[in-house]
Amino acid sequence: MIRLVIDERQRLLLQDWLPGAEVVKDHSWGLVGTTVLELRHDGTQYVAKAGDPDDHHIARELRAHREWLEPWTSRGRAPQLVQADAEAKLLLTRYLPGELVEGSEYEQLPDVYLQAGELLAQFHQQLAVEDFEFEANEKKKSLAALGKPHRIAPELTDRLRAEVESWPTPGTTLVPTHGDWQPRNWLVHSGVVSVIDFGRAGLRPALTDFARLAVQQFQTDPALESAFLHGYGSDPRDPEAWRPNRLREAIGTAVWAYQVNDTGFEEQGHRMIAEALADSVD
After folding, report:
1. According to CATH, where is 3.30.200.20 located in the chain?
2. Which residues lie closer than 8 Å to 266 by C-beta, 6 or more apart?
3. Segments of the chain assigned to CATH 3.90.1200.10
4. Multiple choice CATH, 100-278, 1.10.150.20, 1.10.3720.10, 3.30.360.10, 3.90.1200.10
5. Nearest residue to 159 via CA among 242, 250, 238
6. CB under 8 Å to 148, separation ≥6 — which residues?
C-alpha cells in the first residue's frame, strides 16, 4: 500500500492507477513541497511526483512531458509519462534506471558533459520563439526578490538594485529549457547519460541552462566545460546578456535559499553575486 506522505486525493489516484503498489523509496528533496516516490507495481517500477497546495513545479513538469521531451523519451534518455492529473498536482512516470551523476565518479568525467551538451542542444533546437516581455518580467522578478527577506548586505542590495534597474529590456529568443541543468538531474546507466526532474522547465533564452554549471563544475575543471561546449556545438553566452542572467541567478539563489534555510546553497548564491559583480563586460 502507498503510505500517506501525500494528500488523500493523490493517494486515491495512485491506488487507482497502480492498485496495491508498494513504495520502494522516498526521493523527496525536503526543501520544497514536492513528494517524489519510487513505486513498484506488478514487477515494474515507477516514479510518482505530488505537489502540495503551493506547488507550481508539477504544472511545469507536465508541460515538459507533453510538449518537449519526445527527443529524449524516444531514445530512453528521459522518463516516459504514464498518468497525470494537473488539478491534483500529480504525475506518474516510468522509473529511469541509473546512478545520479552528482557526488559520483561520473561528475568529473568529460564524456558525461559531452553527452549532456548533446542532449541539451537537442532540447533547445526543437523550438524558438521571439519574445518582447521576458527580459522585462525577469527584471521585475529580480527587483521583487531583493525586496524579500534575505542576508545580502544592505549596501550590496542597493548596488544590485541600481544595476538591475539599469538593465535594458530588449526582445529575445526563447527555447525550451530544463531550468536546472546540472549533475544532480543527470543519470548514468551503462555509460549513457539521461535526464530527470522538469519542475523548472519553461521557455527561456538558451544561455539560462548554462547558469548552474558555470558557477559549479565548469569552475573546477575547464575540461568539463570544453567537453560540454563540444557536445552542445556552440556557446550562446553573449556577454551583454550573460551578465544580467548571472546576477538574476545569483540574487534568486541567495534569496530563495535563505527562505528555505538551505545555508549551503545560500552561500553559493552570495559567492555568485560577488563573482558576477567582480566581472565587467568587456
Report:
1. 8-95
2. 151, 253, 254, 257, 258
3. 100-278
4. 3.90.1200.10
5. 250
6. 255, 259
Enter the C-alpha cell of residue 265. Answer: 546553497
Give the position of cell 566545460.
225
pLDDT in tens, the chain (282 residues): 444 468 999 999 999 999 999 999 998 876 667 899 999 999 999 999 999 998 889 999 999 999 999 999 999 999 999 999 999 999 999 999 999 999 999 999 999 999 999 999 999 999 999 999 999 999 999 999 999 999 999 999 999 999 999 999 999 999 999 999 999 999 999 999 999 999 999 999 999 999 999 999 999 999 999 999 999 999 999 999 999 999 999 999 999 999 999 999 999 999 999 999 988 544
**Joined grid coordinates for residue 141:** 522578478
* pTM, rounded to two decimals: 0.93
Pairing of strands 34-41, 172-177: unpaired
Give the residue from 6, 2, 175, 26 showing the smallest Cα distance to 89: 6
Interatomic CA distance for residues 6 and 3, integer angstroms? 8
CATH number of 8-95: 3.30.200.20
